[in-house]
Amino acid sequence: MIAVRDLERSFPEGSGRQYVLRRISLDIAQKEFVTIMGPSGAGKSTLLTILGMLDGEWSGEYRLLEHEVHKLKHKERVALGKRYVGFVFQQYHLIDDLTVAENLAIPLSYRDVKASEREAAVADTLDRFGMVAKKNLYPRQLSGGQQQLVGVARAVIHRPALLLADEPTGNLHSDQGKEIMELFRELNAGGTTIVQVTHSEENAKYGHRVIQLRDGWIVT
Amino acid sequence: MDTILQDLRYALRTLRRSPGFTTVAILTLALGIGANTAVFTVVNAVLLRPLPYREPERLAMVWESNASRHRDKNVVNPQNYLDWRERATVFAGLSAVTWTSITFTGGAPELVPGRAVTPDFFSVMGAAPALGRTFTAAEALPNGPNVIVLSNGLWRRRFGGDPHIVGQAVPVAGGSAVVLGVMPASFLPLAIYGDEEYWTPFRIDLANRTHAGRYAMVIGRLRSGASLAQARSEMERIAAELERDYPDYDTGWSTNVVSLTEQVVGPTRLILLVLLGAVALVLLIACANVANLTLARVAARARELAVRTALGAPRWRLIRQWLAESVLLGLAGGAAGVLLAAWGVSLLLAAGPPDVPRLAEVRLDGRVLAVTTLVSVGVGVVFGLIAAWGRIGGGENSGLRTVEAGLRTTAGASAGRFRGALIVAQVSLSLVLLAGAGLLLRSLQRLSSVDPGFDPRNLLTAAIDLPGATYPDLRRQSAFYGRLLERVKTLPGVAEAGTVTFLPVSGPTAATSFTIAGRPAPAPGQSPVADIRVADSGYFAAMRIPLLRGRLFIASDGPNAPPVVVINETLARLYWPQQNPIGHRLQISWTNPTAQPEIIGVVGNVHAGFLDADIRPMIYYSTSQEPAGSRALVVRYADHAAGLSAAVRTAVRELDPDLPVTGVASMYSHMAESMSDRRYPLLLLIVFAMLAVTLSAIGLYGVMAYAVGQRTREIGVRVALGAQAQDVLRLVGGQGMRLVGVGILVGVGGAIVATRVLRTLLYKVAPTDPATLLGVSVLLVGVALIAIAVPLRRAMRVDPMVALRAE
Known about the structure:
Largest sheet of chain B: 11 strands, mixed
Strand content of chain B: 15-25%
Structural class of chain B: alpha+beta
Oligomer: heterodimer
Distance between the termini of chain B: 45 Å
Mean pLDDT of chain B: 87
CATH superfamily of chain A: P-loop containing nucleotide triphosphate hydrolases
Low-confidence stretches of chain A: none
Structural class of chain A: alpha/beta
Distance between the termini of chain A: 20 Å
Largest interface: A-B, 33 and 26 residues
Number of helices of chain A: 7
Helix content of chain A: 25-40%
Order of helices and strands of chain A: EEEHEEHEHHHEHEHEE
Strand order of the largest sheet of chain A: 6-7-8-3-9-10
Helix content of chain B: 40-55%
Strand content of chain A: 25-35%
Mean pLDDT of chain A: 90
Shape of chain A: globular
Number of helices of chain B: 23
CATH class of chain A: Alpha Beta
Radius of gyration of chain A: 18 Å
Shape of chain B: elongated
CATH topology of chain A: Rossmann fold
Number of domains of chain A: 1
CATH architecture of chain A: 3-Layer(aba) Sandwich
C-alpha cells in the first residue's frame, strides 16, 4: 500500500540544513498494522505527517496505492490525504465548541458529504462506538478515554484506508489505553491499514511489526 | 448551503462562549460604525438626497456678481430682475424673492421671518398649496391687498392647524393680513440666508423702472432640456446688454447662475465631508482594534485551525468559518451602531450646526441602513481576511506540526509585527484627527483674541423690529426709540445705551457705493463701496467705539438739519490720507442719493461683518436723519446688573405691548454665534479625536498586555539574571513607546497632508503649524504612557520564581 524510497526531510539551519529524516525507505502492505518507535526527536511524527500528506517539503519517492505522491501537486496531495487518510492525535484535539456528534461530522463536512448522508454516518458511528448517549455532550464533559474514543471515531468516520495515530494513548491511563488499542486491532481486522507512533512496548505488541527510527534513520 | 448554516451556527456559539471578546469587539465596532452612521445620516439628508421640490435639478439661483468688488453672489436689483425675466429664454419661470418679517399679534406678539415673493414663485418651485391658493398678479401690484400664504409649520404652531383659516384676516402689527393659503408640510421653505415661515407678495412697481438698490434673490426653473451652462451663457449676455443700457447702475455687474442644490448645500459640504472623513478615521481605528483582538484570538485558536486542517479542511472552508464569525461580529456592531447613531444624530443636531440646511429632513432612512449594513459586512470581511492572512494561510505544514508543537509560540514574529503595525496605524490616525481639532482650536483662539474695535464686556444686546404699519416714518420711529432709550438708561446698573441698524460681527449686511463731493466722478462701476449703519451717539458710547476726530451726532442734527455722517478710520485713511476729512461731503447711493451729507466725525474701526475679514469703509448715518425701524439695542451695564434682560423686555412692552423683543443676549454670545461655523466642526472633531485616542489607547493597552503575557518567562529569566526594575521598564516600555513614536512620525506626515482640507476653516494658523503638531504629539505620548502603565507595572512585578515554575 505504501512504498517510500530515499525520503529525506530537512530544515534550513544557519548556512546549512538540519536533517530530520535521512534516506527513509519502507513498504507497508494493505491491512498491515505497523508501529514506529524511537526516542524523542528521532523523526517519528515528521514521518507520520509526510505519510498523511500534511507535509510536502520532502525529497524522495512515496507511493500510496497506485498514486505517485512525489509527482503530485500540493492540491492533489491534499485531496489524496482527504480520501485515504485518517488521523488520531495524542492530545485528542477535539473542537471544544462542538458536540460529540458535530465533531464526528467535521471530516465528512470537509469532504462535501451531503447532509443526509452525513447524519446517517454520524448516527452509525455513534452506535458503533457506543456513544449514542453522549452525542450532545461537549468534549469538556467527557473523560480522557472517552475523548480519545471520539478522536478515533472521527478519524475513521469517512472510512479511510490508512489510519495514522501519533501516541494515541499517551495521555490515557492503562485501562483506557488498552481499550483504544483493542479498538485499533478491531479496525485493522476490518481492513484498515494502521501506522502508529508510540513509546509504549505494550502498544507496539498490537501491531504486526515495528520500525525503529534514530536521528532520522531507520535502524531496523 | 447547509455547511454555510453550520458555519454560522458554530460562529454564533463560539461568540457566545467568548462574551468578553464579543462584547468588547461589538462595542468597539458600534462606536466606529455608530459615529459613521450618525454623520452619514446628516450627509445623506443634506448632500445626497435630492431637494424636496419637483425636478429640483432644474432649479437655479441667479445672482448679480461684481468682480472688482469681489462679490460673486450679490443680491439682485428688482429692475434688473424684470429685464432678465423679459429677455431670458432659457428659464420656464423666473421669480424674485426678498426678506421680510411680520409681527403677529392677537396673543403673544411674535416677530416671524418670511419672504416677499413674485406670484410665479410657487409655480417656479413646482409647489401647490394644501389649502386655499397663492397670489394673483393683481394682488402683487403696489398698494395691493395685505395677503399672506402660511407655511405648514406656522399654520400649525401659531394657528393650531385651523382648517378654516383660508380667507380669515389674522391680526398683525398695524392691522391684519388675509390668509390666502397654506402650503403642504412637504413644501420645505428654502430658508436661504435666514428662516422663512410665510410668503407675501413682492410688490415691484412695473411702471417705475428706476434702479434703486440690490436686495432681492432670484430663483428660476430651467426649461426642460436646458442646461446650467446655457443659462450662465444667456444671463451673462443679458447682463452685458444691461451694462450698456444702464451704464451708471450696471457697469461692472454681471450674473452668476448656480444650481439650487449647490446654493443650499454647497457651503456646508466641506464641513460635512471633513466630519465624514474624521469618523471614517475613527472607524479605521476601531477596525484596527478589533483586528488586534482578532489576531490574538486567532493565535489562541491556532490549535483548532490546525486540527481542522489535519482533518481535511480546505483553506477556503477555514476562511469561510472565520469570515462567518467576523461578519456576524460586524453585523452585531452595525446593529448596535445604528442604535448609537439614532442617539448620535440627535446630539449632532442638538450641538447646533451653523446654517446647515435641510436639518428637518435628517433621519435614518433605507439608504443609511443599507450603507451601514454594507459597512458592517465590509468591516467583518476585513477582520476575517486579516485572520486568514495572518494565520490560516500557513500552508500545508501548519497543521499537525503546529498542533503537536504544543502551541507555545502561536504568536509568531510576523503576527507580532502585524499587531505593532496596527498600533502604529492607530496612533498615526489619531494624530491626524487631533491635529485637525488642534488647528481649529488654535484658529478659534486667535479669532477670539482679535480686537473687534469695541469693548464687548458688560454689553447686553436686543433686537427690535418696528412694524412699518404702525411706525411708518422717521418721526414715529425716533419717538419710540427715544422714549425707550430714556427708560433703559434709567434702569439700575445701566451706564450707556444706544441703537444701531446692525450689530458688529453680523455677516454681510447693508452696503452701497459713494463718491466724494468735489472730486472727479469715478468711471461707471468704479465708485467705492462702504458699509452703511444708522446709529445714534449712545451706540458709540455704549460700545466704547472711540471718537478719533470731530464729533458724534448731537441733538441739533435733527431731521430738518443739514445731513451729517460719521465715518470710520479706514474710510478716512483711504480717501484722506494724512488729511482731515471733517467738513468734506459724500454723495451716497442710499435713501437720498442727491443729498451730500457732511462728515462730522471719524470713529475707530469695528469688525462689521466677520472677525476674520478685513475692515471695510463704514458710513454711519444718524438715527435722527435716516429712518431705521429695525434696530439693535446695545446696553452697557455695571458689573452686576441682575434682571437687566427682563427689565429691557418690560421697558419695550410698556411702550408697545405688541412689539416682540428678540435676540436678547450678551455681546459675547452674539460674537460666539458669529464663530459657530468654526466652533461646530471643532466640537465634533474634538469628540471624534477623543474617541480615536481612547480606542487607540485601548488597542495599545491590549497589545502591551498581550506582549507582557507572552514575555513573562523571558522577563522572569532576565530578573533572575539580575535585571533591575528600570531594565524591565526599558525593555517593555521601550517596545510600546517605539510603536507610539513611529505612529507619531507617520501621523505628523499624514496630518500635514490631511489638514490641508481644513485650510478655509483656519484663521492665521497654517495647516502645518509646528506648535499644534508638537502639542498633539505630546498629548498622544501622555495618553500612551497611561495606556501602557498597567501592563508595565505587571511586567515590573514579575516574580522570577513564579514565572519560571509556570514554564
